[in-house]
Amino acid sequence: xxxxxxxxxxxxxxxxxxxxxxxxxxxxxxxxxxxxxxxxxxxxxxxxxxxxxxxxxxxxxxxxxxxxxxxxxxxxxxxxxxxxxxxxxxxxxxxxxxxxxxxxxxxxxxxxxxxxxxxxxxxxxxxxxxxxxxxxxxxxxxxxxxxxxxxxxxxxxxxxxxxxxxxxxxxxxxxxxxxxxxxxxxxxxxxxxxxxxxxxxxxxxxxxxxxxxxxxxxxxxxxxxxxxxxxxxxxxxxxxxxxxxxxxxxxxxxxxxxxxxxxxxxxxxxxxxxxxxxxxxxxxxxxxxxxxxxxxxxxxxxxxxxxxxxxxxxxxxxxxxxxxxxxxxxxxxxxxxxxxxxxxxxxxxxxxxxxxxxxxxxxxxxxxxxxxxxxxxxxxxxxxxxxxxxxxxxxxxxx
Length: 399
Ligand code: PLP
Known about the structure:
Layout: H1 14-24, E1 31-32, H2 49-58, H3 69-84, H4 89-93, E2 96-102, H5 103-118, E3 124-128, H6 132-140, E4 145-149, E5 151-152, E6 157-158, H7 160-169, E7 175-178, H8 192-205, E8 208-213, H9 223-226, H10 228-235, E9 241-245, E10 257-263, H11 267-285, H12 291-301, H13 303-333, H14 341-345, E11 350-352, H15 357-367, E12 369-370, E13 376-378, H16 387-398
Parallel strand pairs: 1-12, 3-4, 3-7, 7-8, 8-9
Antiparallel strand pairs: 2-10, 5-6, 9-10, 11-13
Helix pairs in contact: 2-12, 2-13, 3-12, 5-6, 5-11, 7-8, 8-10, 12-13, 13-16, 15-16
The structure holds pyridoxal-5'-phosphate (PLP).
């Protein structure tokens, strides 16, 4: 009786809205540039061969039991090694508190809960723009959310000066969320030199860097290179946090495999922090599903499977890069009056096209091409077959 009369529909997720419009369109030429998951050159989702191989290795008995401490700690160890580096002091001194999390989203949410419990009322600064769910995650965890300037509309590049100013002007000891590579949605990353300056300024202002690593390997095709920002902060001795996702780089979106790690000043403190993260996770969902974690830990701990993964990751990153080049070339050949350099300068899964609302609506209406209203193109949706049609359409709506 009337219990839920006051409940109003939640606002639609912008990405789900794009997918719905795409699915409802009967045109054979339609293109979905909304989804953030990798697609092959046929536009199909991919199951990596290393995942298939790992799957055949783990078929059997372990599945129905909850995850064993051994599997879990091996998974965490192998995951954090990818970001902090095998020979880093952090690993040697065991100064990390790591926990398996429900993919990147779950890792962010768990960290937000941790923040609220132990640094109540300290704000987190998110880049403007950022993945829209960051706002939901920290807001729902009741952490005060602020933004810092990141994107420069005119140059379609990084607004580095404003970014630095916002770091300097934030209250001393704030949390900052940083995308270590392949920034979503802009595809714009600071250079190594800029990361060094950012890290220095963080030391001056005693800010806490929280890295959301959702695309390791997708920016450069190389896991180590894509971890460079984190390594720079490590060299400077920061205590940091990091959310990792295997959704994109292993194509395991549906399995929700991720890792949250938080550094501490020594191993003893790391164990204390871990016990609190574990407690928070237990109250929310007890423990995460086991299948995906077994897949990832099997791949990461088997040198042959890991090598296979690294190869396949490079193939995915290279395909995306070649589609950027191809889209750019087609626009040049059409004598587009605009400068499209940013298409090839930006990195990772997304291209922040600079197209405006009207142009985006026209692309959907007249060309059956769908993307989010911020003009973000998922390069994974671009293929050898549709790239010239896309370029022609972009040219027509922007000329
Ligand atoms: N963080 C960023 C920046 C993302 O772009 C995404 C996914 O789009 C996520 C986190 C969440 O990924 P997951 O599917 O692993 O939860």
